[in-house]
Amino acid sequence: MRPRSLEEMIGQEHVLGEGSALRSAIEGGKPHSAILYGPPGAGKTTLARIAAAGAEGAFEEESAVNAGKAEIRAVIERARERRRASGRPTILFLDEIHRFNKAQQDALLPAVEDGTLTLIGATTENPYFEVNSALLSRAQVYELQPLEPAEVEELLRRALGDPERGIADPPEVSDEALEMLAQRSGGDARVALGALERAAERVSGFDPSGVGPKPATVDVAAVEDALQRRAIDYDRQGDRHYDFVSAWIKATRGSDVDASLYYLAVMLEGGEDPRFIARRMVILASEDVGNTDPQALLVADAAARAVDRVGLPECALNLAQAAVYLALAPKSNASYKALSAARAEVRANGAKTPPDYLRDSHYPGAEKLGRGEGYRYAHDEPGGVSSQPLLPAELRGRRFYEPTDRGLEVELGKRLAALRKQLDKP
Fold this sequence. Notes:
This protein is of the alpha/beta class and 426 residues long. The protein has helices at 13-16, 21-27, 44-53, 69-86, 102-113, 127-130, 133-136, 149-161, 175-184, 189-204, 220-227, 239-253, 257-269, 274-289, 295-310, 315-328, 334-349, 409-423, and strands spanning 34-37, 58-63, 90-95, 117-123, 140-143.
């Protein structure tokens, strides 16, 4: 059921729309070097083969899983010989290009640069992580998106209606089953078509020769059995790792407990290290909750300890409890902003010397230098509050911390205002 022309392609209108650079290049038979980046089953290989089929040149295909520098050198040599003999260009489709190391990718550079090869690479990994910058500068990156459920459903109906390329003598398939299959395939055409085929085989219950009972209907139950548990598109070392932890942080910061739990579930199902998740929770507890609810740091730290003590799968419950608490807690980045402001001051103007009465007085000779002289012990002062300036002289009156009007910081703000009023007295 692989599409054989742009007219049969479904989806990817953002890069294949009428008049787009990629579509025009393919239709004109002169594709340019490109990296096709997207999830499995989105059409990367299909698009490369369509581009090659209409191109004015020879087509060679390699997979980085099996090919090495020797194979690539051989392709380049054939391309150069072809160019010398007939002037014909060569298009190299390199699947799984992210599996090539830097040296292997570098071997492609001269041929791509001088036009000996038009390179079309396909990858499920973010090329800005996995493809070296020199090669990227010579190729246009096109990001393909997962297919929409309606697009997947159209592909499924095509397979049912095409006995030559699709399912021969297909059973009845309920609309509910098709809709569910389209939704559950995650935008992966291969997953959807493979599951449809398994579901059709499951309900057939008759001899392929045609002897036996009429096929049953493929219903939702048959689709569920065919799908089983879908593999999660998640790479602990790649950009999906960063995308989902970023989404979890932003959802939790935004106080959407359901979104927080969902992204947590994706990370856990994708095999993410729970210690990494726990570390992010501890950071978020101070960065985004802070003193609006100081208990958040204790909860996050307890979850991190539980991960070490309990391990998977049970520690997922501890992470879920912490995620819920952090999402529901009132939010403040006042501590984060205060530290950032203080560090910016230090970077801009250096470290100002503390007043002599605050400096260490425990080493020999400190007294002669006046260190610690005149220091007033806060516990002996009225209300336990210092009655002398504590910032360096150049920074007196400077404010770094400004609490919000949320959670416990409301009370902290009142206390801060009273303390500053007292500390600012001459």
